[in-house]
Amino acid sequence: MMRGYCDTDTLFHNTKRHADQPEVKTELDALTVLLAEHRAGEITLFRSRVNLREVEATKDADQLSHLLADYEALEAVPLDERHYGNSDVVVDRYGSVVSSPLVSDVQDEKILADLQALGLKRRDAEHITQALCNHCEVFLTRDYDSIIKIRNRIESQFPEVKILKPSELEKQLHSP
After folding, report:
1. Where does residue 146 rank: exposed (0-12), middle (13-18), buried (19+ CB within 10 A)?
2. Which is it for strands 138-140 and 162-164: parallel, antiparallel or unpaired?
3. How confident is the model over 117-138, as a mean pLDDT?
């Protein structure tokens, strides 16, 4: 079964709010088909806490509510956080200790650094790192200005993932 990771800009209501633009309407139509296939169990579309952090920054309460529902409609990546230790703090003279886990959204710091070296912003690199570390074959995005612009370089260095717009994936899945 095809495994795809959804960039935050491919959440349905992020796409829908720009549907008056013809190129975005094409992506929304394709996304509608892909989400139906996800709900039917024909493909698996994933999200991570990286998406959630971006969604939570949404100021408009109605849009936030829609985006949270879109987020929940996707499957959580199996490897969403990496535990890399604990922060143990002695809190009193009797030796009481408070231990807090140290976690990161980044599964592999080297992959993240390699993606940033290609010219990606950190958050975009975090998304693609999540896709790679969770064995997704496709990274869905509408981010033309950064990710799609350099997708050939990304795919050359990381051939296990294809960077596609929703319309491109939908076409691939349904072409004879």
Report:
1. middle
2. parallel
3. 97
